[in-house]
Structure formats: C-alpha cells, structure tokens
Amino acid sequence: MVLSNRFLSAVAKLGLVAGSAYAEKEQIWPANTDLLESMLFEQQGFNSQNSPATFIVPCEKVTFGTGRNGAAEWLRTAYHDMATADVENGIGGIDASIGFEVNRDENPGIGFNETLMNLAAFLTPRSSMADLIAMGALFAANGCSNGSVEIPFRAGRVDATGPGPTGVPRPEQPLDEHITSFQKQGFTPQEMIGLVACGHTLGGVHGVDFPEIVDATDDNTQTFDTTNSGFTAFDNTVAVQYVNNVTQNPLAFGHNETTRSDARIFASDGGIEIGRMATSPAYFYKTCQDLLERMINTVPKGVTLTEPLQPYPVKPSRLFATVNSNGTMSLTGYIRVIGTVAANPNRSIKLHIHPRAGVTCTPAKPCTVSNNIPAFASGHVMYGNPPLTFWTYPFTVEVPLAQGISGFDVEVIDNINGVTNSTLHTNGGNGFPFDDTLLTQPQLSCTETHTEGLMNLTVAVSSHTLI
C-alpha cells in the first residue's frame, strides 16, 4: 500500500487592509468551515500550527530535496488531481483521487506522496483531503506571488473512495490531444495556454522522473526559467523568456523535440496569448487567478462548494466554563480581532454576557460586562502588502450561576487622540453562542494512566435543566 492510500483510509481576497472586501456579508459563528477559515488566514503567529501554509510559505521556505520546491509540488498535485475531469459529464475534479493514482505512469515522481503526507497532518472530519489539496494550490500561487495572485477559497470538496479515470496530459503527446484533454477539463485552447504558463512558473523538470527530457543525474532539475527566483517566484518570467527565445524551459526548448509540449501549446495560437502574458504582469496575474480558481473549483457532479471564505472580523475560540465554589462560573477563551500590523496599545475589548434563557437583566441586577481586555498575541497571513493581521485577546469572566450564560457580544474599543470609539459585534444580532447546560469540570476529572482510554469525567449540570 502506498502512503497516499494510508491517509485516505485513515480517515477571498488575501492580504488586504482590514475592512475593505471583508464587510460585504457578515459570517455567523460558529460554522462548519471555521477550521478551514483558521487554516486560510492564521498562517503565522498565534494558532499558526493549524495552517498547512507553514510548510510552503514563504515560497522558498521548504524543499522536498535537492532541486525541488514544495510549492511547485503542491500546485502540480492539485492539477494532476483535477486533470482527469470530464466536466460535461460531471466526473472527477479536485476529489483527492490522486491518492489512489500515484503509481500510474502518468504521475511520475515522489512529490505527490510527499505532498499528501504534508497535508494529512491537517485532515479532519471538517477538512477533507480534497479541500486541503485545493488550499495547497492556493497557498502556492498566492504565497509565491506575495499576494499578486488572490485566489478565493470555497470549501465543501468530497474525498473520492477510489481512483478516477486516466488521462493526465503528457509532454510527448501531440497538440490535438492536449487540446482535447484540456477541453474535457473545461478549458478552451486559449485557456490551456494560460493554465500551462501559470503552472510552469514554479519549479522545473526532474531528471530522475523524466530522463527522456532532462539528464537523470541524481535529482537533477532544470528550472522553467533562468533567473535565481525562477524556482520560487510566481511571476511571468517563464512567458517573457519564451517570447524572447532565451528560456531554458526543457518543455519548450529541450533536447528532445518530442517532449516540447510547452512550445507546441504556447505557439498554438500564433503566440498571441503567451505574448500578452509576457507583456503585462497584471494580465498574467489576473489570468492565473481566474484559471487556477476554476481549476480548484472543478468538482464532481453533486458536490456543492460554499461561498468564498472570508475572515471573521471577530472570532471566539477555546471557550470553556468552570463552576466555582462561590456561586459563580468562570468563562475563559480567546477573542480574535482583525487589526493592524503593529500592536495598537489604544485598543481593548469587552464582553457583554447574555444571560441564560428566562433570566432578565435589570438596572438593579445588570448582566456581567468584563473589564477592558488587552491584546495577547498576533497572527497574520504571510503575504500581501500589508498582510492581513489579527490580534488575539485572552479573557476570563466570572458570571453568577443564577444569571448563567447563553452567549455574549464583543465590544471593540479604540481610543484615538483622547476620543473613544467602540463597535459592538453581535454575530448577526444573536450574540456569540455558549451553552452552559452541561459543563465538563477538568479539576474534578481524571484519566487512568494505566488503563488506556479510561477517563473519570465530572460534568456540572445546570439545575435549570432538571425536571
């Protein structure tokens, strides 16, 4: 059994200044996509251990070995997973079937298994391998372009339970077969040119995998362009060098004419599209953004993707409550708030606690409001100018047991030049929910260290739920 079969059986705009594109539609917390939202946006700093981006961003950070680049491998994995799609009949696409297909001769190289092994660490019931493969392609393009490519992410892909059909395009195929293959995937001949140029802006051809194209000396790699950044920069250099006839791209000017697939594809319209991509970096980035977004959103019939995920302006996490002996309960957790790159010492937050159902707040018996809470730690997207940044605020709030907790609002308070401004975040009007009906009490619980899996769990049950 290959490694990739093991993981299968074991189971937006990024980099904008806060407030521009993210306020179009309020997201209601919690949602099934919350873990994926954290993976997308909390790439460095607090909570960054949850994000696959730490493997390949910045772009030159990780290689899979001599002459190899992780971001290029992740992008290649996504394309090979999608490449056998038949969009007209709703078959295939990004569905993680690549995990069952790594031993096919159309999928040479160990990069697929290594990519899947990287991503398997983030595989959960709420993050399918197919979603992770699509996210990996997004990180490769967005990260290696420093946000010049801004692919939004939709969730909801479903993992295949077996291999898909064959049909990944090969370098030795004639042009008409490539055109037919890309049309089956849903791309026109012009879009085929763009998608190949976008895919071949990173990495190169490995001799160990393609000895008929590049000399097989250990893991000898011939990159697609000649610049020092050609291995790791997602830019239009591969197009510029092809148009100027100075490229070392082995799929365009390699010693084996039969495998010059890039040359045949780039010249198929007389060089018009590759010329546009070479002339205008903006056109190149926009073309790549559109085509790669369509690539990762190609899914089998019956799979419905979500709207593009956007970061919550305010997001709670790790909420927990314990019952105290003095007639109170302590609610603890973290509040993540979109902020500026530098810490803002004049910003704090307050929590306004909603009482348990049936309890009314009055002036004489007001509901609990926390004291001002200062920032604790930051996290941010690792690309963009400036990058999207968050600040996290830890809190502990004591609430009378008689009042209870059904949720809370978050007030963000800014003091600018002596003037205080506050914004109350109500999570769509109903507050951020919390259920105090059953509360596990870790200080009264224990795990039997000598008996695997045995736990003595103490739970506090609200008397208001008893009949």
Automatic annotation (TrEMBL):
Domain of life: Eukaryota
Pfam families, alphabetized: peroxidase
Name of the protein in its database record: Peroxidase
Signal peptide per UniProt: 1-23
Membership in a protein family: Belongs to the peroxidase family.
Domain Plant heme peroxidase family profile: 128-336
EC number from the UniProt entry: 1.11.1.-
UniProt-listed GO biological process terms: cellular response to oxidative stress; hydrogen peroxide catabolic process; response to reactive oxygen species
Keywords attached to this entry: Heme, Iron, Metal-binding, Oxidoreductase, Peroxidase, Signal
Uppermost EC category: oxidoreductase
GO MF annotation: an example: peroxidase activity
UniProt key word Iron: yes
PANTHER family (UniProt xref): HEME PEROXIDASE, THYLAKOID LUMENAL 29 KDA PROTEIN, CHLOROPLASTIC-RELATED
